[in-house]
Amino acid sequence: MNTLDHKPEQQSRSIFVYSDEMSRFDFGPDHPFMPERAIKTYDLCNRYGVLNHPWMSILEPEFLDEALLTLFHKPSYIDMLKRASRGEVELGMLAHGLGTEDNPLLPGIFEWSLKASGGTRAALQSIIQGDATVVFNPLGGFHHAMPDHAEGFCYINDIVIAIKDALSKSPDTKIAYVDLDAHHGNGVQHAFYSDPSVFFFSIHETGRALYPWSGYETEIGEGDGLGFTVNIPLEPGADDEVYDLVLENALFPLLKAFSPSIIVAQLGADTLVSDPLTHLKLTNNAYQKAVKGILDICPRIMGLGGGGYDLYRTARCWTLAWAIMNRVEPTDEYAGLVGGMMFGPEMEVGSLYDHPYRSKGDIKEKALQEAKRIANHIREEIFPVHGLS
Known about the structure:
CATH class: Alpha Beta
Oligomer: single chain
Helix content: 25-40%
């Protein structure tokens, strides 16, 4: 096993949040959200030897203190979610996003979401308190949940609650939130739209083509938070080359200028070419570049799972993300012993890495030109706020 850039004994503590029980929670046979992704990720991390270093530990998530829910959510919504979780059905639940196709009424969903949120909160606190430098919760990242309703497979916004709780205890902490999910992080944006203490950055598929139909480049914050919200909407068909352009010309320079003390990264893997719910055409090569670039800017990082609906490719992305955050090189410890079908037909034994892919024709040209236009817009509107030219 090789390490990258430093010796193992120099590595600060890393925490991987995992619960086998939570990973087996069932959203239903036709629902695209599969907590099982966490099991696949955990297995892959072990298979590739990136979860067996002495500085790493597993954290079993515990229930979030319910009093913290009101840092973002309305008490009336929480009460309704509890009743739904107990199997009660009310017509008024639909107005709060409960009982929809995206957010069905599931027995135990309140308790499950409370544990997911507890894992995220504990993970961020471990960084704040200096107990860890790198943490990853593949069972977290529910960036769509709003104060009074569920949406987009998200019932409780673990991200907002964890950040607000952290800032209440450590108000001088500079937190940058980076959202790599194909869907715009609308719930998190809503929470911090006028708050300059959190720098919000989301790269996602354009709201003209994908839920939640928001996240345009003109959404840049308001009041004291003007210039602290940045959105990069990508056209359908955007590939690694397009992604590289916005990373180099928008995300990385702005993150460096903001100089966060902690980065909270929603590492959704639904930007991949094979994802069944989105229309972007990335490979995990672009994904790796994003994670590496974020880590180079700020080594104190909390990664969260989020989206990703190609089960096996999502597990590969999250395994690579964990390896990158810990600066270790994955090595298939079962190469030659286990069949290549173990983690899906597309996966070759001994490799987690995708082959390069490029979009072509008018689709590629439109995606590239739009990315350039938006990057220029960001440079004109956002860069001056942060002292960049």
